[in-house]
Design goal:
- The complex is a heterotetramer.
- By secondary structure, chain A is mainly alpha-helical.
- Chain A contains ten helices and two strands.
- Chain A has two domains: 2-171, no CATH class; 172-247.
- In chain A, 70% of the residues lie in helices and 3% in strands.
- In chain A, strands 1-2 form a two-stranded antiparallel ribbon.
- Chain B has two domains: 1-76 and 157-164 and 172-236, Rossmann fold; 83-154, no CATH class.
- In chain B, 41% of the residues lie in helices and 26% in strands.
- Chain B is globular and about 45 Å long.
- The chains are: A mainly alpha, B alpha/beta, C mainly alpha, D alpha/beta.
Chain lengths: 247, 236, 305, 252
């Protein structure tokens, strides 16, 4: 959300698209780092519930600030490129959709490469798997968490800014995206990238079908109906194997 | 090399270790023996600031009482915990890579690969399973991997918490061979064990711990078949 | 001092306050505050005692409000019957939806309940034929009781506060029973709870249903009290407000959440010019509360036992 | 009925590693049986299988002659089996007496409505639970701390409170998971006496323990596990001199 809004503000001030994207993602990443340094890492005796509540607090705080500084209306953002649409196999895509699809492919690829093929990425994984062992081998766990936070801020803001021309810029943009992403993960099974991707596809297709056959006003519902149905049948998700409990 | 002075640890209000002092000299192998619940693991965790403590810890004349765990690691100390230090979802090679990440940064990948092949001479079965996720190794193999992860950092001081726990006799023998090898490499060793006799054979000096306190100390060889050991373990 | 004596004193204070304050505006706000207290007391049972979060409670308030209002406006059902039906249907819905949802833990549970709230909100918004959509639903009749109509502020004030105190009393009773102990066990040592013979999942679904019951009851009363409802009163921000009230009040403290819900309901109504700043303030409150006083106002009420 | 619980060829693997490997033994009615073995031998895993916190891969368990296959973990206490935990599981929000009353949960027949409205039935059972719990605390000689909260009492007392909570449901079989871990000498001696007094009440006991002193002094029979397998079983004197046990413990 922040990324989209910041990008919007910058573009409104007739700063070139490309530079706006860079500046806003950097600013959001810095904000993410600041949040981690000033709040999350300072919270003593943090249990999961208090961290969740804190995250909620941070999120409504940021939304509140944007609502005040900007306003609560939805603002259109012109697509980044001048050509309006592209035809492919007889199907027409608007240019922004192409950008979104390309960005998804590039970032999923980059992210996969970074996390699985480079040492710094593997170190980040290692920290989440076994924080104590990481410390013992000289890894600064706190710094790694900070890095993870900054990266998520960066990716989130980038997603916000490139989706903005499609979804409009608004103080509460992002909630629905986040929720649907979550629904896709539940459907696919947590900790399972393929599962999440398939879950996302299932939900996306179901959404399009439902808006075609039932009514487009209930399009947003279908993701959650599927999610709850899956939870009923197989709480661990469709594509997960049984949890391995360790002693 | 390592001096632990009057260290105490409290859990809630109960005392887990009580005013313990231990010294490990350069190129010496020292063991701490005692039954479960004697506070051996707590003592090691206290040295490495995994749990909060009272008292003072000095490493090579540098006070590390309040040094964060990861900075102690960078001072050439390795601590192989009883919970194993493997990263389950990464393969064996990656596990060793991460254990040596700062060495790769400073001395380059070539140096790492050279060290690695030296390590694999001792851990043949790990070499075969390089591409296997560590989570799929057996308990014993994970234990060996933990030791290998420590060794690849070429530490000056090697601290181990029950490296033979849950190992079959064969692997156990292996671990003691490696300890002998480490001694030859001029590493200083601090080891906490349940496996009394072999540990005593492999080390120079021993401390006996009982319910949070050091009850006895001296040359390891003198403790073989001694009464205070029997008392600490079997209750006589 | 025992909780029940303190509750009685508080009840007397509220009643005396009602009789002395003639200003309908203040009474109106206090009545709305009572409805918040009902919702938050229920949420406190769930969040404060059983340790399970819900970010969708405004949705259940909406269900209570809309179902009862639609029954009464569109089908001409007696308001009281409509309220009972609405509360029953919503609680049943809560139980059915709680069954799969409460298998999730911590942040997954938070997301899932948030989604439930958004679903309800979206249905209310889109099902224009029955709910009136974003424009809201008007013409909801006033409640009356055997010819005695709640036509003045003070009458409703007394009714709703009496009900509120009864509901708090019931919650206190529950917490001081074997079930209260069971929920405290589930909250802190879930795995051990099984060993004491507690069917953890069933208990979670049950307390969730109870909190949905409280929420829907407050929602139904809200509809008949105001005579007008619109989706904007039951959004995500409202759900989060309820969580704020529980957290600031101190999870598990009936009196702490009592005061925060009264204050945090009334303040925004007085300071309407600052409306836009409320989310910011709420966000800050949550962050600061978690950082510096994770027990909320509870500490202030330590002496009540 | 000679056997109170019979464990038959239990196997459990975690990610390809056999934590418990084909273990069988039984506890006789009115017996104190100890389960010992080095770290990672699979003792606690076996306990968690018996109490249904883990699902087993194969094998069967029967309690008082009946298979416990169809029961859920929370139903076992009703059958007369209760346990303590290696890592103390006292509820910090409840005082000592309330923690013990938690163990009496299933013996109370009051329903939710009774509780909500604080009906006489609820009060009756609350009184009964309080009385029984207090009685158990007095039996264990810790009734002086009934109003204290878990973080206000010493470690040794916590262990006893945990045992009290497991006892209050009047179990036929008591499972103790390392009751002496972290206790000092005098506390361990006190525990030893306590275990005997519980046993005198006709309760059969299965305990996991590392403290050999305690095990040798209190148990009638000992099972030794190593690397998931049972390596020896017999009376304490036999175990103390068994070569394989010595090897597992001493590596001789």
């Amino acid at each position: 959300m922040l990324g989209g809004v910041l990008g919007f503000v910058l573009i409104q001030h007739s700063i070139p698209v490309f530079i706006s994207v860079i500046i806003s993602t950097i600013i959001v990443s810095i904000i993410a780092i600041l949040i981690h340094v000033t709040m999350l890492s300072k919270t003593k005796n943090a249990n999961e519930l208090s961290l969740i509540i804190m995250t909620i607090g941070i999120s409504i705080f940021l939304r509140g600030v944007v609502a005040v500084v900007l306003d609560k209306d939805a603002h259109p953002l012109t697509p980044f490129f001048n050509f309006s649409s592209v035809s492919l196999f007889g199907i027409t895509f608007s240019s922004q959709y192409i950008i979104v699809i390309c960005a998804v492919i590039i970032f999923v690829g980059l992210f996969y490469f970074y996390m699985n093929k480079t040492l710094p990425g593997k170190i980040m994984q290692a920290v989440s798997m076994n924080p104590l062992a990481s410390k013992i081998f000289g890894i600064d766990v706190n710094f790694q968490q900070l890095k993870a936070f900054a990266i998520s801020g960066f990716v989130g803001s980038l997603a916000g800014i490139i989706i903005a021309p499609i979804s409009f810029v608004q103080y509460d943009m992002g909630v629905m995206f986040g929720l649907k992403g979550f629904a896709a993960c539940v459907v696919g099974g947590f900790g399972n990238n393929t599962g999440a991707l398939v879950g996302g596809l299932i939900i996306g297709i179901a959404e399009s079908l439902s808006s075609g056959y039932i009514s487009s006003s209930y399009k947003d519902l279908i993701a959650f109906v599927i999610m709850i149905a899956v939870l009923f049948i197989k709480p661990s998700g469709l594509f997960s194997s049984e949890d391995v409990e360790r002693v | 090399m390592l001096k632990i002075e009057n260290v105490s640890v409290y859990y809630d209000k109960a005392i887990a270790i009580d005013n313990v002092s231990i010294e490990v000299k350069y190129n010496e192998a020292v063991c701490v023996l005692g039954s479960n619940g004697a506070g051996k693991t707590t003592l090691l965790n206290a040295i490495f600031n995994v749990v909060p403590k009272l008292g003072r810890v000095v490493l090579n004349n540098i006070d590390i009482t309040n040094t964060p765990t990861h900075k102690i690691a960078k001072m050439g100390v390795v601590y192989v915990t009883d919970k194993r230090t493997v990263f389950n979802d990464l393969n064996v090679y990656e596990n060793l890579e991460i254990a040596a990440f700062d060495i790769i940064k400073s001395s380059g990948r070539k140096f790492f690969e050279k060290n690695l092949s030296a390590i694999f001479e001792h851990f043949g079965n790990l070499e075969e399973k390089q591409k296997l996720k560590a989570g799929y190794l057996s308990g014993g193999e994970q234990q060996m991997l933990s030791v290998a992860q420590g060794l690849i950092r070429a530490p000056k001081l090697f601290v181990m918490d029950e490296p033979t726990a849950g190992l079959s006799p064969k692997l156990m023998g292996y671990v003691f061979d490696i300890i002998a090898f480490m001694k030859k490499q001029k590493m200083t060793i601090l080891i906490v064990e349940q496996n009394v006799n072999k540990t005593l054979m492999a080390t120079d000096r021993a401390y006996i711990m009982e319910v949070g306190k050091i009850k006895d100390s001296g040359n390891s060889k003198d403790f073989l078949d001694s009464e205070s050991i029997k008392k600490a373990y079997l209750g006589g | 001092m025992s909780q029940k004596i303190f509750l009685l004193i508080l009840f007397v204070v509220i009643m005396v306050f009602g009789f002395f304050v003639k200003n309908p505006f203040i009474l109106n706000m206090m009545s709305l505050a009572a409805l918040s207290v009902i919702v938050v007391t229920g949420l406190n049972l769930l969040l404060g005692f059983a340790g399970q979060i819900s970010l969708g409670h405004a949705g259940f308030v909406a269900m209570g409000a809309y179902i009862s209002a639609v029954f009464s406006v569109k089908f001409n059902i007696n308001p009281w019957v409509a309220i009972v039906l609405a509360v029953f249907i919503t609680s049943l819905f809560g139980a059915v939806i709680g069954y799969p949802t409460l298998k999730l833990k911590s942040h997954y549970l938070a997301m899932a309940t948030l989604a439930i709230g958004e679903i309800i909100h979206s249905v209310v918004n889109n099902y224009v034929d029955l709910t009136g959509g974003p424009q809201g639903l008007t013409g909801i009749p006033m409640l009356s009781f055997f010819g005695f109509s709640f036509d003045s502020e003070i009458k409703f004030y007394i009714f709703v506060w009496t009900l509120t105190f009864l509901l708090i009393l019931m919650s206190i009773n529950l917490v001081n029973s074997r079930f209260g102990r069971a929920y405290k066990a589930i909250k802190s040592k879930e795995n051990a709870a099984y060993a004491f013979g507690i069917n953890v999942h069933f208990y979670k679904v049950f307390i969730f249903t109870v909190s949905v019951f409280y929420a829907s009851l407050a929602g139904a009363l809200y509809a008949f009290y105001l005579g007008f409802i619109s989706p904007s009163s039951f959004g995500l921000i409202q759900s989060i407000d309820y969580v704020v009230m529980v957290v600031i009040g101190g999870m598990g403290s009936f009196f702490g959440v009592f005061f925060t819900s009264v204050i945090l309901t009334i303040l925004p109504n007085i300071l309407t010019s600052l409306e836009d700043y409320w989310p910011i303030a709420n966000g800050l409150l949550l962050i600061l509360a978690m950082m510096f006083m994770p027990n909320g106002l509870k500490g202030l009420f330590k002496w009540i036992k | 009925m000679d056997k109170i619980i019979s464990i038959d060829s239990i196997t459990k693997s975690f990610g390809g590693i056999k934590a418990v490997d084909n273990v069988s033994f039984f506890v006789k009615n009115g017996e104190i049986k100890a389960l010992i073995g080095p770290n990672g031998a699979g003792k606690t895993t076996l306990f968690n299988i018996i109490t249904k916190l883990y699902t087993k891969d194969s094998g069967s368990i029967s309690f008082m002659g009946n298979s416990i296959e169809k029961y859920k973990s929370y139903e076992l206490i009703k059958l007369g089996m209760s346990r303590t935990f290696q890592n103390i599981q006292l509820i910090n929000d409840l005082n000592v007496l309330e923690n013990v009353m938690l163990g009496y949960h299933i013996n109370m027949k009051s329903n939710v409505l009774d509780a909500f409205l604080s009906l006489p039935k609820n009060k009756k059972y609350e009184k009964e639970a309080e009385k029984t719990s207090y009685y158990i605390l007095r039996f264990l000689k810790i009734d002086n701390i009934e109003k204290k909260y878990p973080n206000e009492i010493p470690f040794g007392y916590k262990r006893l409170v945990e045992i009290a909570r497991a006892l209050v449901s009047k179990p036929k079989l008591l499972l103790l998971d390392e009751p002496a871990a972290g206790l000092n000498e005098s506390e361990t001696n006190r525990l030893l006496k306590t275990i005997f007094r519980i046993w005198e009440q006709g309760v059969s006991i299965l305990l996991i323990e590392h403290d050999m002193n305690l095990v040798m002094n209190c148990s009638h029979s000992v099972v030794v596990m190593d690397e998931g397998r049972k390596i020896a079983e017999g009376p304490p004197s036999y175990i103390q001199n068994n070569d394989e046990v010595k090897r597992a413990y001493f590596g001789k």
